Amino acid sequence: MSIGIKVVGDRVLATAIPKQEQKKGILILEDVKPNEDIVRVVAIAQDSPVSIGDKIVIGGSWHQKINYNDQELIVVNRQDILGVIDETV
User: Fold this and answer.
1) CATH no. for residue 27?
2) In tens digits, what is the pLDDT along the chain, a chain of 89 residues?
3) Backbone angles phi, psi at 86, to 5 degrees
4) Apex CA 54: angle with CA 34 and CA 61, to 5°?
5) CA–CA separation, 29 and 39 (whole Å)
6) How many domains does the chain have?
7) Predicted TM-score of the model (pTM)
């Protein structure tokens, strides 16, 4: 999925995932701290540790949100990526 934004630096762009989609699998979200979230990657910079379409757990207390083409995007710094969810489990 191309959104028309080239990501630069140590960042990825992501979108929020509906709560019902987050509850699939083994991860129990109620145990996740309030400042952590699960998002889906929609754009990456070159040499990114994640891929477009990955579900990732992010931490940190602040993430910049931007609106582009009527879609809310979350700018995530690479160091705030806590992990990638394995959806094959």
Assistant:
1) 2.30.33
2) 568 899 999 999 999 887 665 555 555 555 444 445 889 999 999 889 999 999 999 988 778 999 998 889 999 999 999 999 998 87
3) -85, 105
4) 25
5) 13
6) 1
7) 0.77
